[in-house]
């Protein structure tokens, strides 16, 4: 509760310094709240996206359906300049059904879903199960001549551990209190990968390619992965979606319990046999995917832009409820609210519903590159092959487009349906008093914590990455990471209606306030290439860490 | 920590009063601990029961396989008088596979498992889905002529709520501290159903029979229930297993998220269509099922009996890991430990591995009735139809068998794999100092809480019900109820090896101490028929509660 006095002080000074405009603002905010809290359509929008359209994997027909539907819906609400903006992505993929059955040593159905961008089985197939115990290309050679017709287990054996006690969390006052402090252990921005991460990512990618080639050469029948969540949750992912590089054989993610069961049989010298049937296919009619863009045009500062957005694509295991139909429904609802109450914002308020977020923030990156600023790709060709979030340093210089200087701010939503408790400023201290002021009339809906730390993993990074203000809210974590993120239960059911109404009102309020503010949102220092000294210091630090690791490993050997 | 001084005081007095026998005891307990903690085979036993044999539904071939295997294993360990004791149960049932696929309004696999004792589909079937919105027999008539070929949803619509925060719990010192106190709100024993429960149970059973008959008459194709746990967990149950009364059409339990999805489509005026295939069948070769019995014979008090036990049967969704292969493996391990260290107990130590627990504690009830004491069934024929745990009052008098007076005590394990933190005494205060003494040399393994409350729901009730000492331990709840109990993830994976070793040692120690004690375990007052006055008072209380409920409902109406 230590943050309260600060907020109150800010409110008072804001009220004193701008009585008239504050009054108009508060009347508008009353109308935003009335429309957003008591005439909410957010769950209706959410239900259409999840139940009706279903999973929205980037490039899939269902994603295309979702894109088209958002255009129509935003037009129906009276938004302007509603259109799609395409960008190159790769192959489309979809599936209708998947079924895995253990045939021996005993019969039982197993829980599994396909890995995205892997082929279907073309009817029912059956085979003996083999665990591929290899972590290097040379170890693969042990399996030469042994995998024909086999179903190959590829994930590391990993015993299931005691679950973390906490399945569902709302932040306490104590948690929120701690968020006032800048954590100096964290990087200034989460928009770049750590040097270790890129090295690992590169290694993993190379080995995955080697395995892929090997399995094809050896005529393996199918591949199995272990779900990275237990408790029966099937947490999916995708193989490469690039034309000419998709995985050659059907691959599925098995529930952790069922993967471990097969492994235990193998450890005991058994050869489990399983049957499976996956109805999946690639779509190659259109290798583009599409962002949805729509606006409420501004008045006297029409060319200046305030944006809110969320990614429309999801994984395919369920219907992407909290990841991220929640964000889409809340940002769409914010636009609907503003339109319904007839605001005439000074700046243009624009919504961006991104595609390709799950595969590497592709949609928002494409948007930024096309409209705001571009940066060269990493000079290292191996680094360029990786997903953008593994890039250690997108190149310099940053080339600004004309809209760069007319851009004010982007607010993103992509952390589930949890209530907004505050906002992250991404190390931008200049926005702190502004956000504190905007939160003030909403203090009965949120604590309005202003957390100066950077937060990563989603589309605001694409803006932050070129020096533009891009923010995410501090949301209650709920059960997002423990059980919903990319799993087969991320459906309509786990999105909380009250939290969604609150988020919609907050997004509408922040978009409105940003569009009406006297000035565009203050910016951080422009990202620049680290100096040679800084690079040298980083390199030395990394080397020291490596040496320390080696010494520690030695000291752990028995004498 | 308020319980510690009490325990220490007890240890001291015990040591002073019986130095020699205490010394011998402690040396034996050293050997029990050495064998049970450091040469444990409990997880090996558990793995055979779960991974290898699989689900052990009462009356199924796998349950018969489990019974036969326990006999062989207990013989191999050198136990004596190892045999099966059969009792009449009903039809056997098993399944190999189950698959449900949504065909429209969009295509997606749905998570489902069959309800036990319902027929298979005999290949793939497909049909439109209808929700049966009826709670009385007369409401069923609305559906007359409308269900032919339909797949009928039978569970109440129930929106998925925020999950309880705590998924996994170990008792804190504070929790344990509270357990010292007798809770006067709880009944003296959990062995009888509450009057409300019986009325409800009777009503539910009658309506379920009516629905069953109606669905058959109307040629419905299959039935769907909603899992009673969300998060993708499939929590199964069984329909009637009685010959001539089994459910007429295939029935499945659907994951809550998928059940709710179908319901939401129906609410919006859609008719979902689903395909399914269930390979299941009844087994009618043998309508009996079997308890496993084995002994370490006593020496000078051979005819007196100390028992430990657990139910061997499980539900069919997974492999019954915590419910109750854990209890079986730990009690078997306790017998193995005692045999391995060559104890020569004064009293005979007997193990009972029960069948039919999940359907109504049938195995332990049959055992008690055959060997120890019998009680007439309820006089009300409708009450007799219900599962025994709905009976308000098994009749009087209790007829003792010769072994009744030679019986000392029964220790049961059936609350998952959670560490033993103490024991429930079922309102028996005379055993309190005895248990405190036995816990003393194990104080580095357990807090040894002596909780005088009654605890219910499993096989110790069958003993308590006829006035014999039957106990369960206070176990850490872990994730037993939140996600494992009767669900499709109750497998080997969620049983905790360290806790299992601790439980085995505790069971072996308590069995040994009971077998060596000077006296047989002290008993509670014999259950007797409540006096007319007590019955009158209970009736008045129930009537008052009912009136209060009605007045409250009235006061809640708007004026």
Automatic annotation (TrEMBL), chains A, B:
Any coiled-coil ranges, and where? none
Which residues are in the Peptidase M28 domain?
A: 291-508
* GO terms, biological process: proteolysis
Is this entry keyworded Secreted?
yes
Checking InterPro entries in the record gives: CPQ, Peptidase_M28
Report quaternary structure and partners.
Homodimer. The monomeric form is inactive while the homodimer is active.
Q: What is this protein called?
A: Carboxypeptidase Q
| Protein source organism | Permianibacter aggregans
Q: Which taxonomic lineage does the organism of this UniProt entry have?
A: Bacteria, Pseudomonadati, Pseudomonadota, Gammaproteobacteria, Pseudomonadales
């Amino acid at each position: 509760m230590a943050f309260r006095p600060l907020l109150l002080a800010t409110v008072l000074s804001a009220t004193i310094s701008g009585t008239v405009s504050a009054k108009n603002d508060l009347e508008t905010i009353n109308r935003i709240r009335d429309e957003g809290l008591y005439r909410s359509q957010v769950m209706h929008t959410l239900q259409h996206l999840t139940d009706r359209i279903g999973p929205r994997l980037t490039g899939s027909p269902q994603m295309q359906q979702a894109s088209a539907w958002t255009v129509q819906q935003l037009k129906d609400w009276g938004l302007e300049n509603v259109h799609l903006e395409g960008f190159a992505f790769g192959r489309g993929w979809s599936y209708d059904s998947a079924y895995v059955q253990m045939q021996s040593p005993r019969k039982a159905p197993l829980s599994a879903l396909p890995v995205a961008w892997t082929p279907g089985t073309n009817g029912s197939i059956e085979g003996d199960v083999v665990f591929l115990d290899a972590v290097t290309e040379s170890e693969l050679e042990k399996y030469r001549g042994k995998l024909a017709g086999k179903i190959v287990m590829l994930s590391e054996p990993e015993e299931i551990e005691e679950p973390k006690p906490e399945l569902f969390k709302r932040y306490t006052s104590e948690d929120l209190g701690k968020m006032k402090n800048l954590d100096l252990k964290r990087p200034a921005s989460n928009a770049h990968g750590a040097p270790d991460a890129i090295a690992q990512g590169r290694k993993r990618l190379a080995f995955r390619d080697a395995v892929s080639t090997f399995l094809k050469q050896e005529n393996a029948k199918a591949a199995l992965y272990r779900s990275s969540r237990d408790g029966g949750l099937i947490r999916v992912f995708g193989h490469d979606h690039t034309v000419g590089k998709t995985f050659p054989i059907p691959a599925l993610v098995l529930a952790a319990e069922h993967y471990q069961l097969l492994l235990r049989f193998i450890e005991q010298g058994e050869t489990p046999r399983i049957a499976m049937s996956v109805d999946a296919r690639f779509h190659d009619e259109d290798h583009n995917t599409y962002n949805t863009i729509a606006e409420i045009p501004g008045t006297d500062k029409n060319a200046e832009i305030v944006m809110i957005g969320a990614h429309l694509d999801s994984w395919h295991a369920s219907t992407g409820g909290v990841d991220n139909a929640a964000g889409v429904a809340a940002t769409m609802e914010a636009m609907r609210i503003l339109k319904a109450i007839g605001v005439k914002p000074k700046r243009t308020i624009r919504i961006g519903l991104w595609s390709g977020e799950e595969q590497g923030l592709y949609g928002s990156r494409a948007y930024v590159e096309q409209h705001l600023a571009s940066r060269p790709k990493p000079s290292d060709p191996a680094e360029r092959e990786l997903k953008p979030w593994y890039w250690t340093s997108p190149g310099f210089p940053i080339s600004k487009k004309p809209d760069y200087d007319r851009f004010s701010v982007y607010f993103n939503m992509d952390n589930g349906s949890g209530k907004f408790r505050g906002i992250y400023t991404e190390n931008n201290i200049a926005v702190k008093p502004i956000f504190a002021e905007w939160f003030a009339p909403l203090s009965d809906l949120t604590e309005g914590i202003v957390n100066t730390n950077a937060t990563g993993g989603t589309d605001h990074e694409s803006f932050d990455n070129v020096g533009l203000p891009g923010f995410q809210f501090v949301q209650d974590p709920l059960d997002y990471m423990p059980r919903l993120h990319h799993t087969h239960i991320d459906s309509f059911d786990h999105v909380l209606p009250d939290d969604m109404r609150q988020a919609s009102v907050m997004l509408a309020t922040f978009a409105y306030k940003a569009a009406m503010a006297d000035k565009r949102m203050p910016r951080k220092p422009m990202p620049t290439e680290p100096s040679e000294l800084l690079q040298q210091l980083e390199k030395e630090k990394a080397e020291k860490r490596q040496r320390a690791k080696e010494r520690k490993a030695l000291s752990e050997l028995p004498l």
